[in-house]
Write a structure and sequence with these properties.
Keywords: ATP-binding, Lyase, Membrane, NAD, NADP, Nucleotide-binding, Phosphoprotein, Transmembrane, Transmembrane helix. By secondary structure, the protein is of the alpha/beta class. It contains 15 helices and nine strands.
Length: 482
Amino acid sequence: MQGCHTEAILTWKLAHLHFQVLVVTVCATLIILICLCTTRSEGLYTQCYKNLHSKTSQPQVPHLTKSKKHHCTLTLDKMMECFLQQSVDAEEKFYKYKEQRLHIEEKCREAEHTREMQMLQMLGQMLNGLSSTSQMTAPSHSSPSHKANLRNHPDSLHLNPSTFSPPIVLERPFSLRPTRPAKDMDNIFQLVRNVIPPLTSKKHKGQDGKIGIIGGCKEYTGAPYFAAITALKVGADLSHVFCTKDAATVIKSYSPELIVHPVLDHPNAVSEVDKWLPRLHTLVIGPGMGREDAILDNAKGIIEKAKSKGLPIVIDADGLWLIAQQPAIIQGYQRAVLTPNFMEFSRLYEALLSEPVETSDQHGSVLRLSQAMGNITIIQKGERDLISDGDKVLVCSHEGSSRRCGGQGDLLAGSLGVLLHWALLAGHEKINAQNPFLVAAFGACSLTRQCNHQAFQKCGRSMTTSDMISEVGTAFNKLFET
């Protein structure tokens, strides 16, 4: 109440200062008009006086006229100076009170946010108690429909959503507004900046990232190229593409910077890729991979090899199709990030939780799916990107555009592969003990949206993913290095 009363007083003072400025402005305008009229009248008077005395041959007194005019001018100048000084003082007071009012409004918003968080925590505790009571009274035998689901999906772990405690979701929409305090340690942009390695001549090739892309078949050659070239433009030193034989020549023709391995449809594909895994820092699985059974089997084997080496994995596109069919492949491996769009997310949710997605509770849905996957980090792409590790939910609502051309997800996957390596390399101190997978995911989402925004400003409706890739350098500099 005290803050609101203070705000009302400041509002009245601002209105009073507005009135003072208006009065001073009107007075200054009237004085200027009087000066102009006075000057003109004196000129006419002087001219008539000269004409009259030239006829009578009497001596003129120009000195008296100039002295009178000079005296009048000095008086008006002093009055003008006084009014201008009052106007400046009033304007300074206006901005001072306005700044105080904004400060009080910020305090009110912080207090309101604190109250909302307390209410959410109380609500979560109440629902948790209700959930515990329902679990104690529930029968121990499984329903027939649940047993049928277990038989239909032997490779999946089906979990009842009621077994999870109601989440306390902390929505954190971060932006680039300069009014956000720099000391706020929750500023995720600063955490992303902290993990970016400095450019120096003392490093050797490969230290800033060697990224592997598993994908690319005869029909889809653009997706692995988009992911691999984006990784290079973000700052990786080397990009490897492991694709089918038919796609290799096409992908090589797109760019000489990429290292292309035509082994994905080879009978010994898993062992061929396994030879390269110790040389890579991150693996991106899925862009343009296709859904042929032989390719999916090879991808499954590659995932197992990567897991055994503790390699960070990003799974996108057709890789998510494979996970929806066999969730156990990646379930519980917390060094993985899944990047589903709406349809891919719905498919995963139904496969893991045996029910449709609750569209009215998007935050809760992404949190529950992450928990069901064993607290794997999940990025649900959409109008706002929701990022969860099963413990919290981050919201990336950075400005993008209304243009949705194919290939933007590949740009996200490629940049995420690089940022994951940097975040893990930086250590917990530079990211304030936050989950490095959340930090990297937020950075990749923000960068993709910034590229989308900049490309749309230039190309409009004709924008394509190639236009977005050409904006990676300037977008990265604007977000993380300026």
